[in-house]
Design brief:
The chain has helices at about 5-15, 15-35, 40-50, 60-70, 80-85, 90-95, 100-110, 120-130, 140-150, 150-165, 175-185. The protein is an all-alpha fold and about 190 residues long. The radius of gyration is 16 Å and the shape is globular. Bound molecules: 2'-deoxyguanosine-5'-diphosphate and fe (iii) ion (3 copies). The site of 2'-deoxyguanosine-5'-diphosphate has 15 residues, from helix 5 and helix 10. One fe (iii) ion (FE) binds next to helix 2.
Length: about 190
Amino acid sequence: DLSSDEIIAKAKQKLSTGRFEHCVRVSQTARELAKQYGVDENEAALAGFVHDYAKEVPVDTYIETIKTQKFDQDLLNYNRGIWHGIVGAYYIEQELKIKNPAILTAVKRHTTADTQMTDLDKIVFMADYIEPGRHFPGVEEARKQTHQSLDQGVAYQLQQTLIYLIKNNFKVYPKTLASYNVWNVK
Ligand code: DGI
Ligand code: FE
Ligand code: FE
Ligand code: FE
């Protein structure tokens, strides 16, 4: 295994300063949520730190990986916004030598969510959305709901994300819609 110093050094080299700092804040927020919800704090902090590790991987590299590593070829119809979690976990395993499936799964699910999520998955998904550097309208409501109930936070984020995607004519990845249907039950 790599030491945390080695993981931090690799991430710093791979990411812009702003995105590296976002990862540090997501890590801290994930640790706090893990404490509140009785999840392993070190797993949450590490998953939060690495969640966007692959955000700046070049498009050609992603396409090559999707074509050669048995990923769903439908992913080729999307972009880095979707790839950096689902495919990003592959680079995290290869380059950061993180093999813990709970951490890799939380990274895979951090953008689109999933129809089934562990508390760790929900924590990383929500920490990314409510970390203190986020300032969009609704973020205070998201923070409040997440501290009341993780499931309520997940439902709120998915609702807000779908509204945003549709308003801006963005494609909805099927898993994002399937997740919305599971977590918003009215
Ligand atoms: O990587 P971050 O910006 O920190 O956060 P993220 O990985 O949660 O990405 C958030 C963005 O992903 C947000 O702008 C909404 C977008 N997104 C989530 N689900 C979908 C999606 N984009 C598309 N096109 N389709 C989706 O289903
Ligand atoms: Fe992300
Ligand atoms: Fe997110
Ligand atoms: Fe992020």
